[in-house]
From TrEMBL:
The lineage of its organism: Bacteria, Bacillati, Bacillota, Clostridia, Eubacteriales. It comes from the Bacteria. SUPFAM superfamilies: ApbE-like. It comes from Desulfofundulus thermosubterraneus DSM 16057. This is Uncharacterized protein.
């Protein structure tokens, strides 16, 4: 089924296609001249290769899947598991809060060998690599800011993770009530985990500033934008423009 929010990050000069493997549902954009059925097959195989070691690890250590707080994994765990565990440790949440960002970045980096411009969206979490300025629209539910703002991202600031969490929109797990929490980081898994953690802190519109301060204090985070009803707070290397 089509995810209606996807038009907010789609780019007119790119060809977008979907890859679905298990719970992973990606919208991928590549340069028009680089698109081919073979690339779709390659992307699908990349997703399977990302998921396989994670699925095998969860079979051996099922508590990893259900943890809502930072979770220690052994040094011999697969790289994607260790990356998720480290991102969630920095953010103070469970490791599965980083899974969408981790997969998006791994697939995006692999595709960058074939296309100079790549955008991979996984449940609202984006890995972006671009040779030109891009605009990413911001949806914030019933907030008056919804669909009125966009992030403008310069090519020199990519590769970049742009991850979104919400307590009022979509299926992502949040213990807060923010309409949109957008976190920027070169580490997409970290951006994903911090978006969840910062969103959990927003129980009231007046707490958007505190949640942004929390995100700003985490090493590796380069920008944060939080919207709750009629309140908005922003920090870092981000440029907001009219949508």
């Amino acid at each position: 089924m089509e995810r209606t929010y996807r038009y907010r990050h789609r780019q007119e000069d790119l060809v977008h296609f979907q890859v679905v493997v298990g719970e992973t549902d990606l919208d991928i954009g590549v340069r028009r001249e680089r698109f081919s059925p073979e690339l779709v097959k390659r992307a699908t195989q990349m997703v399977r290769e990302c998921r396989a070691p994670l699925e095998e690890y969860i079979k051996r250590d099922p508590a990893f899947l259900k943890a809502h707080t930072p979770y220690d994994v052994p040094p011999g765990a697969p790289p994607i598991v260790r990356e998720m565990a480290e991102a969630s440790r920095l953010a103070g949440v469970g490791p599965m809060a980083a899974v969408a960002g981790a997969i998006a970045e791994r697939v995006g980096r692999a595709l960058a060998r074939f296309s100079r411009d790549v955008i991979v969206e996984n449940g609202g979490d984006i890995y972006l690599r671009s040779a030109r300025i891009r605009r990413i629209g911001i949806y914030a539910g019933d907030s008056p800011f919804s669909n009125r703002l966009a992030l403008e991202v310069r090519s020199q600031d990519t590769p970049l993770g742009i991850c979104t969490s919400s307590g009022t929109v979509g299926h992502s797990l949040s213990f807060g009530m923010a309409d949109a929490v957008v976190i920027l980081s070169p580490n997409t898994a970290l951006a994903d985990a911090v978006a969840t953690a910062a969103g959990n802190l927003v129980k009231d519109p007046d707490q958007v500033g505190q949640a942004v301060d929390f995100a700003a204090g985490i090493p590796g985070v380069t920008g944060a934008l939080i919207i709750c009803r009629d309140k908005m707070a922003a920090w870092g290397r981000l440029k907001l423009v009219p949508a």
